[in-house]
Design goal:
Elements: E1 2-6, H1 12-21, E2 26-30, E3 53-56, E4 59-61, H2 64-75, H3 89-113, H4 118-139, H5 152-166, H6 175-185, H7 188-193
Parallel strand pairs: 1-2
Antiparallel strand pairs: 1-3, 3-4
Bound molecules: glutathione.
Glutathione (GSH) binds near residues 42 and 50.
């Protein structure tokens, strides 16, 4: 049995959304977020101290990209990812990892520095804007980030772009991302994942 330790304001939204897309049975444990104090992380009331945490029998995971890849490979039955020998497989892997590898380090640093070191935050925001522009440009050519089909990479990316939007760092020049949000909002699995338990 799969258990997801979840807080809706965190990256665990990715995993709840993915579980819903795959129509997997799971137990949802919604846990309050405890703001980290004195730079201490891994402090949450979950088996690893972090969100998301996924438990599947003996397997305990706490890295959202790895959890997404694990669930798709283990239970996807060829859904939500191009096949290993597909010409799209490389792009799929890139976009699975781009959110946590490139976007989220900026998101974290900007949030950390915006009050005490606003000039640093502004400079990082400019760099993030270039990376977001790369996403917008890619989405100008195709409806989903890996082509014509929705995949796990969209789940990874959309949650990062949502955080960037909530920080006020998306604007009208990112209109392909706005159209992408509209497309994703029609997905029943996302709407189920956003429901409060
Ligand atoms: N790269 C990790 C980041 C996980 C992460 O930073 N989780 C945050 C919530 S989004 C957290 O649990 N922070 C609180 C803590 O570490 O105490 C992932 O993608 O899962």
């Amino acid at each position: 049995m799969i258990t997801l330790y979840h807080n809706p304001q965190t990256r665990s939204l990715r995993i709840r959304w993915l579980l819903e897309e795959l129509s997997l049975e799971y137990t949802l444990k919604t846990v309050e977020f405890v703001p980290p104090v004195d730079g201490k992380i891994f402090t949450q009331n979950t088996p690893t101290g972090r969100f998301p945490t996924l438990v599947d029998g003996e397997i305990v995971l706490c890295e959202s990209g790895a959890i997404a890849q694990y669930l798709i490979e283990r239970y996807g039955e060829a859904r939500l990812a191009p096949a290993l020998d597909s010409p799209l497989r490389g792009q799929y892997l890139q976009w699975m990892h781009f959110p946590e590898g490139t976007l989220n380090p900026y998101i974290n640093a900007i949030q950390r520095f915006k009050d005490g070191l606003p000039a640093v935050a502004a400079s990082l925001s400019n760099e993030l804007d270039i990376a977001v522009g790369y996403c917008d440009h890619t989405l100008s050519q195709q409806p989903y980030i890996v082509g014509s089909a929705f995949s796990g990479a969209d789940i990874m990316l959309a949650v990062s772009l949502l955080s960037i939007n909530l920080m006020g760092l998306l604007d009208e020049k990112h209109h392909h991302i706005a159209a992408y949000f509209s497309r994703l909002q029609t997905r029943p699995a996302l709407n189920r994942a956003l429901q409060v338990e």
